[in-house]
TrEMBL record:
Keywords: Cytoplasm, Hydrolase, Protease, Thiol protease
Top-level division of the source organism's lineage: Bacteria
Subcellular location: Cytoplasm
GO MF assignments: pyroglutamyl-peptidase activity
Gene name of the record: pcp
Entries under InterPro entries matching the protein: Peptidase_C15, Peptidase_C15-like, Peptidase_C15-like_sf, PGP-I_bact-type, PGPEP1_Cys_AS, PGPEP1_Glu_AS
Family under the similarity heading: Belongs to the peptidase C15 family.
Protein's organism: Streptomyces milbemycinicus
Region forming the signal peptide: none
Subunit (UniProt): Homotetramer.
HAMAP family: Pyrrolid_peptidase
Active site (record annotation): E80, C143, H167
Protein's recorded name: Pyrrolidone-carboxylate peptidase
Purpose: Removes 5-oxoproline from various penultimate amino acid residues except L-proline.
Length: 214
């Protein structure tokens, strides 16, 4: 059995739910065949989220870590390609912290690429009939903070560990009063299962164009 750690976030920004945690919980309750899934909910708080992630990795001792976060406004599943070493918060986190132009890890590299076959993961989600794309930016809020922290953890302490980050759209219940794209939580869970399966079974990524012009 491949051991997979899935993380989602608590609600933030005044929302009552966070679709990342809702979908992660569904996957943990019904994982893909041959995979043992442990789920952990992270605080939407700079610093604290990395401590929680490190503790979850220590406890689960996974082969693969897939962190998941909410990206309101995106229309489909986004598999992130790169994490950057900067915290630049447009809004405060859930503890009221709002770092501006601060490193995630002082002295760390400017960026890390995901240790996932990102294009194969996107293809697997599309094959399941769900919109997906490679994303070139995970933002500069707590999602990127966790993504970078995970990559730095693997680079410095657990070199055999593979992992990456997936952003998901709003849940329908979050957008009943505004015109924003959303995906049902069970659809997001199906997408995450596809990502996990592709990540577990694929070592060499697809060589197809998934770049961006802007």
């Amino acid at each position: 059995m491949t051991r997979v750690l899935l993380t989602g976030f608590e609600p933030f920004g005044g929302e009552a739910v966070n679709p990342s945690w809702q979908a992660v919980s569904l996957v943990a309750a019904g994982p893909p065949p041959g995979v043992q899934v442990t789920a952990a909910r992270l605080s939407c708080v700079f610093g604290t989220a990395l401590d929680e992630l490190a503790a979850a990795v220590e406890q689960a001792d996974p082969d693969l870590v897939l962190c998941v976060g909410q990206a309101g406004g995106r229309t489909g599943i986004s598999v992130e390609r790169v994490a950057i070493n900067v915290d630049d918060a447009r809004i405060p986190d859930n503890a009221g912290r709002q770092p501006v132009d601060e490193p995630v890890v002082a002295g760390g590299p400017a960026a890390y690429f995901a240790a996932l076959p990102v294009k194969a993961c996107v293809a697997a989600v599309r094959a399941a009939g769900i919109p997906a794309s490679v994303s070139q930016t995970a933002g500069t809020f707590v999602c990127n903070h966790v993504f970078y922290g995970l990559a730095h953890l693997t680079a410095t302490r657990r070199p055999a560990l593979r992992g990456g980050f997936v952003h998901v759209p709003y849940a329908p219940e979050q957008v009943v009063d505004r015109a924003e794209p959303s995906l049902p939580i069970d659809t997001v869970a199906r997408a995450l299962r596809a990502v996990i399966t592709a990540a577990v079974t694929t070592r060499e990524d697809l060589r197809v164009a998934e770049g961006a012009t802007h």
